[in-house]
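Narrative summary of target 7.
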Amino acid sequence: MSTIKYRDADSLSRKYEEALKTVETGKNIKVGGALVTFPDKERNICELSATYMLKLGRFSKDQRVIVTLSFKRDNDGVYVANVEDSMFQLVQDEKGGLKEVWNGRLKEAMDKLGDIAKLHLNAVSKLSNNSS
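Modeled conformation, tokenized:
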């Protein structure tokens, strides 16, 4: 599955969150929420962002992983995204703010953040199975 098509972009975040509820997470991972934004007025681009919380150890700092998948609207009004273009950002709390520790695409995230990348893939595959 490299491409996902979705007609109703407004329901993407709700459907993504529903898909995550059916997927088993690791003991160090908590699922946050999902959000859909439209960076342009014409709504030709849609971005699905999801947040995961990661606790690596008892004394480690909490980290967050933000996954963003960009969709572009085609001529038929269907939003299309390439799943391999999913962008992962690993951030952690530092002095009252967030500092980016790492970022990369899906392929690199499979090595660095395997469980979270797999959760994202499972949720996206459920989205594509239920796409409208």
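The two ends are 17 Å apart (CA to CA).
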